[in-house]
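Section: Multi-chain targets

For targets with more than one molecule, the full set of components is provided together so that the structure can be written out for the assembly as a whole rather than chain by chain. Components appear in the order listed by the source. The example entry contains two components.
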Amino acid sequence: MVKITVDGKVLEVDENNNLLEEVLSHGEDLPYFCWHPSMGSVGSCRQCAVIEYADDEDTRGRLNMACMTSPRDGARYSIEKAAQFRAQAIESIMINHPHDCPVCEEGGECHLQDMTVMSGHNYRRYDGKKKTHTNQYLGPFIGHEMNRCITCYRCVRYYKDYAGGTDFGPQASHDNTYFGRWQEGPLESEFSGNLAEVCPTGVFTDKPFSKHYVRKWDLQTAPSICASCSVGCNTNPGERYGTLRRVVNRFNDEVNGYFICDRGRFGTGYVNSDERIIVSMTRDSRDDNPVLASPEEARTSLHSMMGAIGIGSPRASLEANFALRELVGPDNFYAGVSSAELGMYKQILDIYRTKPVKVARIKDIEASDAVVILGEDVTNTAARLALAMRQSVKNEGRKMARDMKFPDWHDAAIRQLAMDCKSPLFILSPYATRLDDVAAQVHIASAEESAKIGYAIATAIDGNAPGVTGLSKESQALVKTIAEALKGAEQPLIVSGTGSMSPALINAAANIATALSDGEKKANLALVVPEANSLGLAMLMEESDRALEQAFACEETHAIVLENDLYRRAPSADVDAFINKMEGLAVLDSMKHKTGEAANLVLASGTFAETSGTFVNYETRAQHFYSVFKPVDSIQSSVKWLSDKPLAEVTADCAKEIEGCAAIVGLTPGADFTVAGMRVPRQQHRYSGRTAMRADVDVHEPKQEQDEDGIMSYSMEGVPATRDSTVFNTAWSGGWNSNQSVFKFQSHTGGPLKQAGHGICLIENIASEKTYNEFEKAESAKGDYQVFPLYHLFGSDELTAKTPAIQEKATSGYIALNEADVAKLGLQASDGVAVENNGSVPYIVRSSIQPGTVGVSVGLEGLNFRNLPGAVSLQKAEGWTSPGSWNAANIIISDKSVAAEGETA
Amino acid sequence: MLKGLVHQVKIIWTQIVSLWLVFLHLFHKADTVEYPEVKPHTFPRWRGRIILTRDPDGEERCVACNLCAVACPVDCIALQKTEDEDGRWYPEFFRINFSRCIMCGFCEEACPTHAIQLTPDFEMAEYVRQDMVWEKEHMLIDGTGKYHDYNFYRVAGKAIGGKDKGEARNELPPTDRRSLLP
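Its structure, encoded as tokens over all components, is:
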């Protein structure tokens, strides 16, 4: 820490940060564009100019860009004295800016608007002609309006340098500079949505949001958690006139930081979909037509299902699952996943509890300097982690820079210095993944072989770890390289998960992490699970192994299925048999699906946006999400359908009852929490149209909707989110209308939020004893082609796949084969492949896949992965035509062969 | 005693003066108007009934920017943006609850396209309060209102049907992104 003087004020600042960050941390308003807390400084926009004085006698000083200045001890700076320079700089920036604000989606939350006002440039003097640019079509997610560009280069620094995108960049020169793709087409990166938040003005905008656009101040928002995968990114969804309008990132230092993936951002349109269940329906027998049931009738029917079994769900909240468990009794509660999957979830919990490892947060992943990924396609199963791993490979460059005494924020300089030097990242996977471009080495291997290699790595690091035999020479060399790299690393990271459906692989990852641990120093371990609350469900199943197989074999004749389409979880024939056996089947869900169609009683449940609850993410971090808006009266939260108690009591009961869950009561400030006697408002103080929005129905304004769960209100009354907000939803601060205002809520710029919750990890890892798992050889399935799963960020998830924008990026079910196998099967480019007992699907050719193996898409329409055994036989399909939803161009992979290119439906 | 007498005379005198003045008013022109037979004169900038206007080309001026709604101190304006096939923004619905409106004119001041304007008409009384909720079709007129020449899209950089990039006022033709020449 050093002391500096800024405009007469003495500030104590960290000399390792740049001056801009530090003055912002101290509450000063200094404009900036190109600097971003997670992308560092390049000093290109000339907005954060300050005057730096040489000594006490110096009265003139010199201009310096604060973002490129390290604070000097005892130095004197002035923000005020450089005001004229900044006003001139922004006047030049604004010369070509169009007169677009009323028809710009960024208006009202525009960093450029804020900075222009802040710099004092409020009248245009330039009356010459303005430069114009044509726009590009950039896919269903991002809108492009190049005229508004101020060439701060943030988009390129984010998309190329940070997120590793290759299909976007700067073009032309000087004031013709253009940012776009080499030709029109959808952006390939899975993180393109962040462009809308990174761009300080309206060049890149959220396209699905624009279709039903409202201004930021008109959105009713609440802190939420993304329900689309197991990372548990913090989000801030916004509602207006009863529909969910958009999702933006909500800063959480411990989890997602400033960025989320496109599935999380654009995959919530299903909330407004026509496929929503909006009323409860009932019928006596399955042959009758369902009739409308009032909420009271539906509730009575549900609660009168005596002796029913309950089937939970990894995508329902912890409270909803617990309420079902209470209703049917713990002995009748079954996890809504296969026993193999439940076994893996519990195995992961066990590893987190008993192995001397550190469960890796995203922050830890970003700080890792050697990474091994074992059989998990992270980009498609937990995308935000993949973005973090892209940052981890830059640590080699940072290390080099530190040796040369370069500060960490000096982005351009560090990139120049590092060039192609990267921290090692090793990938073991049955196919080429989207992270291969930053990997030191990619090894194509089956899950079984990857597990073996994993065990061998553990043995190479610690001789006590159990070994394996039968490794090829090539594999042995790889083991040696990886073991060396991990041993030499300060913060090694092992990533694996349930993606390969191989318990041995997860054990292998645990073994490596255990082998690396050395007393206090523990290796990072991240084990990815499939859904938002997979581990929460596993915690409820601590003392029972009841999974879907057991439910299907039970003797009861009534069942309650919670937010779960069983046809996606188990072979269709098994589910059919189960449903036929059931005399009474109640399904609680928000979306229509095949299981719901077979039910006697369907109850309309709320989605994540309409209910509150807790999700437990991949690191066992429990996080509370608040309902964003109140749906129509016929839709209720699953907890309300299942339990008579208010949510807070259900949470408290769950905390008491379930081992390890005690901390979840601390996630919220309590149902009776108020600020100045009022609840926290979901609406901003500028919320408009209050007395007109419902006036078409009735001019007499109804009472504001009441939130039974407490804490927040569906109102603009109350103390708005201030700098020390306990319940942090929309970042806003006077003069800072854009999302950049988040720094006002942070303890220091880029650091943790002052008070808002970060979630609580339910498993505090304190194990120190090194124990290893023995390698268990799994029985390999007999058949022509060994099956492995292929995940899709857009489409594999059940709910997000029902969003129109996601559907534009998704495709139908397909298989992937090696060239040699394609030739063997005699397939032409336009042929389909008949998969044993599972109909015919399209195929693509992937050169990375080993002969004799076949990749099968998971969760995509037209093919149920759970129907397939471990190995299948394949045949050329006769008289086959590709389905309408087949779109090979949406499969973005590096190893696609030419043969697959032509056949876009 | 004398003081009291003077006071009494003063009182009587002022009453006589008052009666005289009242009498004189019999010959003055009346200040009240015979409303509704006689209409008062309201000036062009009088803040009365709100209208939505069209631009000189006959297109809706409102671009659904929401600034009127946020400026409204009683929050009586609600609208929703949508877009036509030409790329023009316009309100899908535009509603004013006149039973709340205080005719302050902030909406007109906030409007960047001269779409919303207040008119000299003030006769808006209704027997049923619900009838004071006006939708776009009740407010949208065929003319330009008080501002005859302004056409927002001729000035804005956004391309719409019939006006491509570079064709707005004071714009250069679009740059060539494949060229490095100055």
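Chain B has a mean pLDDT of 93.
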